[in-house]
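Researcher: Let's do a round of design. I'm pasting the structure tokens now; please hold your answer until I've finished.
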């Protein structure tokens, strides 16, 4: 057989700039603002399967032809914005309120893997679930919007600390795998990365204590 091009000449270039502003308004209040701009440019070359012949296994020929016919160059202009306000009650307690917008562009495997043939698609499995995965050139970046609050109790010399953070995140264009045609329950399948909507919420609790 010939060479199977899972991703050929894949490129992902990142250029970023960021700024941060912080102000202590008085002995209790602190405010912090941050902005980050990142441009991500991706591209990949034309691909082929193990064989270009009519008897090639799976859909190698048709999948490769469909992938090669598309415009593969993509560029994303991503803006991250964060805002935080902290109120310090005394040397042992503080509360923080934050909002954030975070953007993530697809990686090369999410955007440029192309074969729906199970033997090839399973090479793109990075989660260990036994399924195969296929990318999508048309994926948009994820956009996550988060609100959170943190209660911080600690020793006045930080010998111990307890932090409790409830949060809520709404993600537009969340990138995850969905079923393809032919999906069957109770067996391994080939899934495809796609944009969806998601909500994430919960409570993070962390603590530490000095033992020495």
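Researcher: That's everything. Go ahead.
Model: Designed sequence:
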């Amino acid at each position: 057989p010939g060479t199977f091009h899972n991703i050929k000449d894949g490129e992902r270039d990142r250029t970023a700039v960021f700024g941060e502003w912080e102000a202590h308004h008085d002995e209790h209040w602190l405010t912090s603002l941050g902005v980050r701009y990142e441009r991500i440019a991706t591209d990949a070359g034309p691909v082929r399967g193990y064989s270009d012949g009519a008897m090639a296994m799976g859909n190698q020929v048709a999948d490769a032809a469909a992938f090669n016919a598309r415009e593969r160059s993509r560029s994303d202009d991503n803006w991250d914005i964060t805002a935080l306000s902290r109120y310090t009650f005394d040397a042992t307690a503080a509360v923080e309120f934050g909002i954030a917008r975070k953007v993530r562009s697809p990686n090369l495997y999410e955007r440029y893997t192309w074969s729906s043939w199970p033997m090839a698609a399973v090479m793109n499995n990075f989660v260990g679930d036994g399924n195969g995965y296929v990318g999508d050139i048309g994926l948009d970046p994820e956009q996550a919007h988060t609100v959170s609050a943190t209660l911080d109790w600690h020793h006045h010399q930080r010998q111990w600390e307890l932090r409790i953070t409830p949060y809520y995140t709404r993600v537009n264009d969340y990138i995850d795998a969905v079923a393809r045609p032919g999906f069957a329950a109770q067996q391994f399948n080939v899934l495809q990365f796609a944009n969806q909507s998601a909500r994430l919420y919960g409570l993070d609790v962390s603590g530490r204590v000095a033992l020495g």
